[in-house]
Structure formats: structure tokens, C-alpha cells
Amino acid sequence: MIYLKLFNPEDLPAISYDLDENQSRFTASVAKALKMIRERDDHFAFPVTIFDGQQAAGFFILDFGDDKLELTDNKNAVLIRSLSVNPEMQGKGIGKAAMMKVDDFVREHFKDCNEIVLAVNQKNEAAYHIYREAGYSYEGKTRIGRSGLQYLMDKKL
């Protein structure tokens, strides 16, 4: 069973996996994402661990900072960033199941939030399809990211 929990430092050994070169083009490693939060002393970013049963399987950040305003005008939105699943556990539907659970997780922990936004690289077709299947909309808005054109997606809560 897939479930989400706010990150606990005890999760780190299990999610300290390496991403291959292709995946690293599209998302930050867990270590890099956590380092950015620490260096910025970012009180608007909430790391989340994805679990498959009792095993930590992946990671993402719910970012309530101003970066989300590049994707939406909604100050009550949250930006999903740095999503990854342990490469040894990919292909089992963990990422899709996690994205299906984000809505309820956000409603439970962040009651004022009414929209989830994200940006996905146009070349990251697998991730794009996962987000679409999880109910995220793409209305034709794009931006240039660190690895090229990104589709801007959202989901109303």
C-alpha cells in the first residue's frame, strides 16, 4: 500500500538513491533537494516521503513559497517539486499512486490550500502521463526550465 508522510530524517538512508543521468535532467536528487531547503532556511517547503508498505520508496517537496507564483496567481496553491521514486522500485505504479494520494494529503495537512501546481519537462513523457492520469490539467501554458520547455499543470482541490 502506498502512503505519504512528512519527511523524517530517519527516512533518509532509504531514500538516498541515485538517479540516472536522464532522470537527473528532470528532477533533483533527494540530497540536493534537502540541501536547498536547508541552505535557504526555507520554512515554506515541506519534504514528503513516499512509502510502499513499510519501505520508503520516493520523495517530493510541497513548496508553498513564491516560486509557485510562476505557475499560478493563486496564493493558496502549492507547488510539487523534486518528485522521484527509487530507481530499484520504479515501474510498479508507486509514482502514480503517490500522485493520486497527494490531494488528500494536502487537504489533511494544509487546510488553506486549494490548488496543486507543477511543471513537467516536455521530454519527460512518462511523468506527464502519470500526472494526467492522476487528474492534473494541462491548459497549454509552458515555461523554459533548466532542461528545456516545461508544461505547467494544475489540479484544483
> Major sheet: size, sense and barrel closure?
7 strands, mixed
| Oligomeric state | single chain
SSE class: alpha+beta
Alpha-carbon distance between the termini?
A: 23 Å
Report the β-strand fraction as a percent range: 35-45%
N-to-C SSE string, H for helix and E for strand = EHHEEEHEHEE
Number of helices: 4
Q: Descriptors for this entry?
A:
single chain, 157 residues, alpha+beta, seven-stranded mixed beta sheet, 4 helices, 25% helix, 36% strand, globular
Tell me what you see in this structure.
- This protein is α+β, with helices and mostly antiparallel strands and 157 residues long.
- 25% of the residues lie in helices and 36% in strands.
- It has four helices and seven strands; from the N terminus they run E-H-H-E-E-E-H-E-H-E-E.
- A seven-stranded mixed β-sheet has the order 1-2-3-4-5-7-6.
